[in-house]
Amino acid sequence: MRVLMFGWEFPPHITGGLGTACFGLVKGLTKQGVEVIFVVPKAYGDESKEGFRLVNASDMVMDFTNVKYQEHWNRIKFLEIGSNLIPYVGPEDFERLKEEEKLQVTSEGQSVFSERYQFSGKYGINLMEEVSRYALVASVIAQQNTYDVIHAHDWLTYPAGIAAKKISGKPLVVHVHATEFDRSGENVNQTVYNLEREGMEEADLVITVSHLTRQIVIERYGIDPEKVITVHNAVEPVDRPEFNEVRKHLKEKVVTFLGRVTFQKGPDYFIEAAYKVLQKDPDVRFVMAGSGDLLNKMIRRAAQLHIGTKFHFTGFLKGAEVDTMFALSDVYVMPSVSEPFGISPLEAMRSNVPVVISKQSGVSEVLKHALKVDFWDIDALADAIYGLLHYEGLKKMFIRYGKEEVDNLKWDNAAGEVLAVYNQAQTLVH
Q1: Distance between CA atoms of 151 and 161, rounded to whole angstroms?
Q2: Model pTM?
Q3: What CATH number labels 2-234+411-429?
């Protein structure tokens, strides 16, 4: 089987769990004998290409005399409206991004309808313009390649998946890694919501990363339950002996939050719980690793609570930096308000770090050996952190059984379930 897959990011150039999940799934699929053509807006040349073909949308040259794509041009004109849309970015960062964009003269004068378009592949102020162009490029790639199934990851690529389906007539599977309700709560961006819903409606089958997300898809987007299938994420095995040699230069224990510093991830609950832990034990260090629209607010809050000397803000970490951070950590905390899945706790447990996660996360569906609390219950969160820091027997139990549990959550197994979805999608079309 051959799959045409559309993604927005791919390691090592990632902003979160989406790229990590795509990489793990693609590797798992290739082991199942599936040929994958993976399309990204912008390739950098240093991506891993183990057993699959990576297509750089920025290399595509468009021929606008080809009438085959007239229908898609009309769709793209609609998508170009309101291009100043940036998920995950708040007002403070928006002005900074606008100034940075002015300095990038290579992008000036570009149009969705230019013969060649250089994608940034980021979540910048021209995001909707890039989503639009990506859909147009998808129609050309769909015409030029042979494949059995189309697979689109997250709302950014749903228009591309729909365009490929219209051109080829092949079945479309869309993968829901997060919804607008996860990212924004009830203050949804209607444009993003509409794109998500259209992608799910046009898809032959929808994959969700948890039962939690499946319910949101059914209840909030009105999608037929018969076509929504849950496939839980997994984690890449890691064997890096050098991280066993990492030594802390601090005598204090280290508690880590790693993720986007946004409403969805609950960083404010982490700060408040840290304050409570420090009231009981001042010999603890807290790390907030990540970037996002709430970062400045979190820094200010730590200062207001007078715990700034016990708090470290590292900025965004990736690759080996993440592994090093886990090697330095004694406890990992994911207090997400709404988390479709959450791969980072698996990465922490893989590194022998006990974890505290919110009950409002998809990963809580598959983990037994993790302490689970309601995201809003700061007292319970603080107690869980304190317990893992001070009760050695508890900590050892969660490390030992947690590692065994995570080692059995393999992308090969998830890929097998996704392959079954592909086979089912083909039967629906034929």
Answers
A1: 7
A2: 0.85
A3: 3.40.50.2000
